[in-house]
Amino acid sequence: MIIPRSIRRYKERKEHREGPWAELFEPYKGDEVVSLDCETTSLDVKKAEILSIGAVRIKGRKVITSDRLDIKLKPPASLSGDSIKIHKLRAQDLVDGIELEDALKQVLEFVGNRPILGYYVNFDVRVLDKFLRPQLGFGLPNKAVELSHVYHDIIKWKHVGGDVDLRFDTIAGKLDIPILERHTALGDAITVALMYVRLKYGETPKNIY
């Protein structure tokens, strides 16, 4: 039986609110967001294994690139030529990578209970949850913020009618944000953070369609 995510998270919050990771399950009352991205071997959550994880904090109008998470993991057996073409990470690039268990703990410590921002953020959250639950007994309880939804909602309020192109490169171009090291976890996390800040605090782009 498939348990709805909301029910599963309620159950996990109840079970772990007094454990070593109890802080994660407290409501967040600050003003920060964490932009996070994972590079994986597949876009299928069931098959995907994590190769690298990048994250930066956003506080108001500032993307705090000096405080970042940039993790490479040990190469999984499923690393193939097809996935290497996308993320450019070969087995030899990951020889100094860390174990998955250590990487997951670093993610939890860096993110805390802040909201998690991303482009197709639910994919990253689901992949992380897939590995977190067997090890720690819970998935990420954080609020997820989808960049393409933020962009879509703002554009629809300003410009009624027409379809909105939600591709990563298109959004970056419309917002006049440089794409930093595309298909690297840290590069994508920083680019998404910059786009989010522009959407929240900058001018709405005029040439949408």
TrEMBL record:
One of its GO terms (molecular function) is nucleic acid binding. Keywords: Exonuclease, Hydrolase, Nuclease. InterPro entries: Ribonucl_H, RNaseH-like_sf, RNaseH_sf. One of its GO terms (biological process) is DNA metabolic process. GO terms for cellular component: cytosol. It comes from the Bacteria. Residues 32-205 form the Exonuclease domain. PANTHER family: BLR4117 PROTEIN, DNA POLYMERASE III SUBUNIT EPSILON. This is DNA polymerase-3 subunit epsilon. It comes from Marinobacterium stanieri.
